[in-house]
């Protein structure tokens, strides 16, 4: 009996990433065009996609660049926008600890959409689990780079009205939430998140409510971890 060759992990991972491909190309193009409208060309869009790779924060960064460099504001804004990564980043450290040096890229490339794929897909038979998940992360990253660069090129070459284009990230998060809402039978965590967010918006105002909500949610989910896990277990 001949031994089967290991399957190509990139080829195996690609079909699972097609939804991310379509989303990242269009969102990346929106970001590239918005950045170009502020006087920053395709090279800047490409470099930000390569080294920052944070969709929502890149959109926020456009405003920060236009307003002038302010380290403290930039730090606090980045903390507020990306604080959600704490929720799914820490649990993934256990999985990534066996990845060797590749774990650093896996941590860097962990976006909302990539996380969803990593926890919901299994590698096909004959495909290395490590390189399958690494390929998903790298493919998603490449889609974002391509979209941002293409948007930067189009925005620099064509007179495009970018008014309202930054709303694309808000729309994306609404869609992700609705998809998760439809798939989950127990919606307690989602309801807690909504309630805390609304309360913090009223108490702390639009500037600080995201950071405040994240802190409160972390405390709630840490302190109430066992009861919540029992509720989430299938009966």
Write the SSE topology.
Elements: H1 9-37, H2 42-51, H3 55-67, H4 71-82, H5 85-96, H6 102-108, H7 112-120, H8 129-157, H9 168-183, H10 188-223, H11 225-232
Structural write-up:
The protein is mainly α and 235 residues long. It has two domains: 9-183, no CATH class; 184-235, no CATH class. It contains eleven helices and no strands. The protein has helices at 9-37, 42-51, 55-67, 71-82, 85-96, 102-108, 112-120, 129-157, 168-183, 188-223, 225-232. Helix 5 (85-96) packs antiparallel against helix 6 (102-108). The longest helix is centred in the C-terminal third of the chain and has 36 residues, at 188-223. It is globular, with a radius of gyration of 20 Å.
**Overall number of strands:** 0
How many strands, what sense, and barrel or not for the largest sheet?
none
Termini gap? 45 Å
Q: Which sequence of SSEs, written as H and E, runs from N to C?
A: HHHHHHHHHHH
Tally of helical runs: 11
Helix content: over 70%
Poorly predicted tracts of residues:
none
Average pLDDT rating: 80
Strand content: under 5%
Shape: globular
Query: What is the number of independent domains?
Result: 2
Structural class: mainly alpha
What gyration radius follows from the Cα positions, in whole Å?
Answer: 20 Å
Based on the model shown, name its key terms.
2 domains; globular; 11 helices; mainly alpha
In short:
By secondary structure, the protein is mainly alpha-helical. The protein has 11 helices and no strands.
